[in-house]
Amino acid sequence: MPFLIQSRPFSTMQYSLFDNEPARPAVPKYELPDCYTVHNIAPLGTKINNLNDEALMMMFYSNPGDLHQAMAAQEL
Q1: For residue 56, which of 42, 70, 66 has the smallest C-alpha distance?
Q2: Is the pLDDT score of 38 beyond 70?
Q3: Among 38, 42, 71, 75, which residue's beta carbon has the most beta carbons within 10 A?
Q4: Considering the chain, what is the average pLDDT of its residues?
Q5: Are the C-beta atoms of residues 47 and 71 closer than 8 Å to each other?
Q6: How far apart are CA 63 and CA 65, in angstroms?
Q7: How far are the Cα atoms of 16, 17, 18 from residue 6, in angstroms, in the given order?
Q8: Looking at the domain assignment, is residue 25 inside a domain?
């Protein structure tokens, strides 16, 4: 007797992998208004020596394989 897979949800909050409808509604396209964009930020390299060890550790572990990780490692 072949094994049959039934496509029914586990609960009302989850969706089955076999449903044809998306699990969540599509997110509408949104553009951030220009008034919320900050343009006059100094580069990180000029401020990294002012960061404490905890901030550098967070920067190191939250940016794996990134330039910020290498900068934090050099500063530590």
Answers
A1: 70
A2: yes
A3: 71
A4: 79
A5: no
A6: 6
A7: 9, 11, 9
A8: no
